[in-house]
């Protein structure tokens, strides 16, 4: 091999590597990834519908449980036992509604199947990430969730929930720590109600 072909070799390898990074991750692989995730913890930054920014820690225990703890604030969002409760000190009693009425239920479902008919409305590659927009096929009126995944290995990096009124909330995840155990009490709406009364 002469010097000229040696000099070209790294450029050729780099040229071959870039398209591989840019390929969108198949929906069945994303479903497998979410179904494998049992517990995860991450710092997060949230961009609220009014443009304000909140930060905190999110705890996920699939299926069906999530806890958003906000920094410098006594606000707490809990999902468990099929319900979501929003504890906001400014509004007194917590708001509660069924988890099935929020697009976040798609990530927390016991069996995520992004290949289900009419669930995914968009699946594209953007800036070396895979972006998937999904909705409940039976209840599209509840809004949708746009999830951003990176590859090698596959990891959920952020999501944007568009609710039934068209309001968007963006959650950008930090370094996700998967696995380990999270106490069940972290997700108990009743325990939190008792603690705050």
UniProtKB/TrEMBL annotation:
It comes from the Bacteria. Keywords: Lipoprotein, Signal. InterPro entries: LolA/LolB/LppX, OM_lipoprot_carrier_LolA-like. Residues 1-22 form the signal peptide. This is Outer membrane lipoprotein carrier protein LolA. The lineage of its organism: Bacteria, Pseudomonadati, Pseudomonadota, Alphaproteobacteria, Rhodobacterales.
């Amino acid at each position: 091999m002469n010097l000229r072909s040696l000099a070209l070799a790294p450029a050729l390898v780099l040229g071959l590597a870039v398209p591989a990074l840019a390929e969108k991750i198949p929906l069945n692989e994303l479903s497998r990834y979410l179904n494998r995730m049992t517990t995860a913890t991450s710092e997060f930054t949230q961009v609220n519908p009014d443009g304000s920014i909140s930060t905190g820690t999110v705890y996920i225990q699939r299926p069906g449980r999530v806890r958003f703890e906000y920094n410098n604030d006594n606000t707490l969002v809990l999902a468990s036992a099929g319900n979501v409760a929003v504890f906001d000190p400014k509004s007194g009693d917590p708001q509660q509604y069924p988890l099935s009425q929020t697009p976040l239920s798609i990530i927390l479902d016991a069996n995520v199947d992004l290949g289900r008919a009419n669930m995914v409305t968009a699946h594209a590659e953007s800036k070396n990430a895979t972006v998937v927009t999904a909705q409940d096929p039976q209840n599209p009126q509840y809004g949708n969730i746009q999830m951003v995944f990176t590859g090698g290995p596959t990891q959920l990096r952020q999501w944007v929930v568009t609710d039934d009124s068209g309001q968007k909330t963006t959650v950008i995840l930090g370094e996700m720590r998967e696995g380990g155990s999270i106490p069940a009490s972290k997700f108990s709406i009743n325990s939190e109600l008792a603690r705050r009364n």
